[in-house]
């Protein structure tokens, strides 16, 4: 089995472009939360709280964000995993659509009991 060369990948990380400035954070959170509320089927809703720590890995078209959300009226905050997203030039969906689909899937799963 081929072992990855971690040192080489870490060195390459500095050559990669920064994560794309793909959103206005407050506006995006508001839009996602409104769309999740509109699409709510059931009693429990997901609420997007924060997007933080954008970072690249050694894959130039992939970046990572810590997506913080709450479930219903619970005070506990959860972090969305997997936390990788893709540049529009390498993926069919925009960042908004990628994030919305993941959160909507969680919301649907909770309301369908599964």
Core attributes:
4-stranded antiparallel β-sheet; 34% helix; 114 residues; elongated
Describe this structure in words.
It is elongated and about 50 Å long. It has one domain (6-111). The mean pLDDT is 83. The chain has helices spanning 6-13, 25-38, 95-111, and strands at 46-56, 62-71, 77-79, 84-86. It is α+β, with helices and mostly antiparallel strands. Strands 1, 2, 3 and 4 form a four-stranded antiparallel beta sheet that branches. The N and C termini lie far apart (36 Å). Helix 2 runs parallel beside helix 3.
- Structural class of the helices, strands and pairings? alpha+beta
Supply Rg: 16 Å
SSE run: HHEEEEH
Helix content: 25-40%
Biggest sheet features:
4 strands, antiparallel
Number of domains: 1
Mean pLDDT: 83
| Strand residue percentage | 15-25%
**What is the tally of beta strands?**
4
The first-to-last residue Cα distance is 36 Å
Low-confidence stretches: none
Secondary structure tally, helices? 3
Mass-distribution shape: elongated
Concise summary:
Helices cover 34% and strands 24% of the residues.
Strand and helix layout:
Elements: H1 6-13, H2 25-38, E1 46-56, E2 62-71, E3 77-79, E4 84-86, H3 95-111
Antiparallel strand pairs: 1-2, 2-3, 2-4
